[in-house]
Write a structure and sequence with these properties.
The protein is an alpha/beta fold. It folds into three domains: 44 residues, no CATH class; 128 residues, Rossmann fold, CATH 3.40.50; 138 residues, 3-Layer(aba) Sandwich (Rossmann fold). The strands form two sheets. Strands 2-1-3-4-5-11 form a six-stranded parallel β-sheet, with helices on both faces. Helix 2 packs across helix 3, helix 6 packs parallel to helix 7 and helix 8 runs parallel beside helix 9. The longest helix has 17 residues.
């Protein structure tokens, strides 16, 4: 075979089977006699056969790849989501192409267009914003299946998989009240995204209306889902005459930084102030103290996102489907045992 690419015909000849049988084994299209399959796989390995994915894509109109666009790969929550989706696709012999939008709507639109041009079989998108991301998402949905993950985009007519943010915040507040907390501060992100909007809204409904014209007051601090904001928010709270009984963080990425800043200032958690958060990332289990946090069922959400992609591919005109999963609260040391 020196000097030319090994073909399916070569593998079939070496295995002593028909070209059609060898093709079925190598593409996993149908079941084949186990002994024949063993011979084909052995021959393909010995000959160094590699599939011509471009030819197969032209023939089947499938690339067995799914594109995923996330706002930022520096956020550990999105990494966890990507890993869950990749595992789900791998179970069915498919691959994931990941793109980082770098928290930019313009970059997000470029990445989405690039993946569509790459002829991915579908797209899973975590929108950068709830509003400005809509045009690019809608354009992609006209070309093929699109599922929004974790965050919805306003007025986008696409399938969506997420968790019940209002229920997650209720779990946080009920837990803190059961621990005797009365003054509770929420540290979250400005409502540019659906998750930031829903979590802040839920807190306000649970605690009562805000005094400020922008929907905030002394019990609400809004910035970004970032480490920098966690540090800044903690410093603002430390600058007050009195710390609250408890702090609810809108995401672990905020809470981890906030915990570290409080600890550096000599504030004892949970003795002086209790801290609860959202996402239940591994990072939060490594903090001192370990972080009480709301766990989203990411694996189940990833499985549902892939299922909806496949369903949309088979039924392009089916009604839009929205799957909402219930979160659970993982109680650890930051709110007291």
């Amino acid at each position: 075979m020196m000097g030319r690419k090994v073909t399916v015909r070569d593998v079939a000849a070496a295995a002593g089977v028909s070209t059609a049988t060898a093709s079925r084994v190598l593409t996993h299209s149908t079941s084949v006699n186990p002994e024949m399959a063993r011979r084909v796989l052995k021959a393909s390995s010995e000959l160094g056969y590699t599939a011509n994915v471009f030819a197969r894509a032209l023939r089947t109109q499938r690339t067995d790849t799914v594109g995923m666009v996330v706002p930022s790969i520096s956020n550990a929550y999105f990494i966890a989501a990507v890993e869950a989706v990749e595992r789900e696709l791998a179970d069915s012999g498919r691959s994931l192409i990941l793109c980082d939008a770098r928290e930019s709507v313009e970059t997000e639109a470029q990445r989405i267009e690039l993946l569509v041009q790459r002829m991915v079989d579908g797209l899973i998108v975590v929108p950068v914003t709830a509003f400005d991301s809509v045009p690019a998402i809608e354009a992609a949905a006209r070309q093929g299946p699109v599922v929004l993950f974790d965050r919805w985009a306003d007025a986008a007519s696409t399938d969506y998989v997420g968790s019940d943010n209002a229920d997650g915040l209720r779990l946080c507040v009920d837990h803190l009240r059961a621990r005797g907390c009365r003054s509770i501060v929420y540290v979250g992100a400005k409502p540019r995204t659906s998750t930031a909007y829903e979590r802040h809204k839920a807190f306000r409904e649970l605690m009562g209306p805000a005094d400020g014209a922008d929907g905030t007051d002394g019990s609400t601090l809004l910035g970004e889902f970032s480490i920098e904001w966690g540090v800044d928010a903690a410093r603002q709270l430390l600058g007050r005459d009195e710390l609250p009984d408890a702090i609810v963080c809108g995401a672990d990425i905020i809470a981890v930084a906030l915990l570290g800043t409080l600890r550096e200032a000599g504030v004892a958690v949970p003795e002086q102030v209790k801290v609860v958060s959202y996402d239940d990332l591994l990072l939060g289990q490594l903090t001192v103290p370990r972080l009480t946090s709301v766990r989203q069922p990411i694996d189940a959400m990833a499985a549902e996102a892939v299922r909806l992609l496949d369903e949309r591919a088979g039924r392009p005109d089916a009604p839009v489907h929205k799957s909402i999963f219930r979160p659970t609260l993982m109680v650890r040391d930051s709110t007291g045992r």
